[in-house]
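A quick word before the example. In earlier lectures we treated sequence and structure as two separate objects. From today on, think of them as two lines of the same record. Here is 4-hydroxy-3-methylbut-2-enyl diphosphate reductase written that way.
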Amino acid sequence: MKNILIADNAGFCFGVKRAMNMAWNELDKSDKVAIYALGPLIHNKQAVAKYEERGMLTVDTIEEIEKIESEKVRRGINASKDREMIIRSHGVSKSIYDEAKLKNIPIIDTTCPFVRKIHYLANKCFEDGKQLIVIGDRNHPEIIGINGWSSHSAIIAKNLEEISNISFETNKDYFIVAQTTMNEKEFDAIINYIRSLDIKFEVENTICSATRVRQESARELAQKVDLMIVIGGKHSSNTQKLVKICQDIVDTFSIETKEDLDRNLLEKYHTIGITAGASTPDWIIEEVINFLREL
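And the structure line, produced from the sequence above:
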């Protein structure tokens, strides 16, 4: 039998759990209201699938909602139903709220409170005439949303290499925030570099406290095992940061479900550590644990 150790902090974080509960409650009235999610509710396709089975429709744009609703009216399918749009935990740009209001689409806002705080900071920064710097992945929906609260004028960099290639101006006031799932050590390295420059700046460490704790728990556990298994979506930013942290210490497998595990590859490992991203449901974690216990 394998010795299995589980990180103290693994699985749903507060923001994701809150978003999932809010969305689930809305689906209780899906016989009267068409429920749309603007983008995947969370970065876990297995969890999202359970919501879509209950009637939630995932779309990429508000225009897509308009097209679906128009087609329903044309065909007389559930034409009497109202509609609602769920804003996922990653948050969205200010323009999305404006567009939804213009088109009279009620919003169920599940934006994580930690992300909402960054929206406020980004908007205030823009209104005060300061230059916003966001440390994170420019292609991640959270960063796209944050940038949208500064009229898409932010400087975005995800690592020290990218920030060192930026030409800063001495006559500007800069304001720095971070993606909530940013690696704490990498963020500190970037801030230390910026401090070495002759520029005026303020910084707000907006890395989620749950992210800090989750990353530190994974780092500590990785030092005690032969193998780390990190469970989470391939497109989940916080999951992939956990993978990187563990890989720097010990052999690490990145998986979405137990189906991604290879019994033959696991044979040589005796003590196995498990952690999971903030969008990973408990039932997926339990399936992996049970699979390992049966080896």
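Notice the following. The first helix runs from residue 14 to 27. We will return to this example when we discuss secondary structure assignment.
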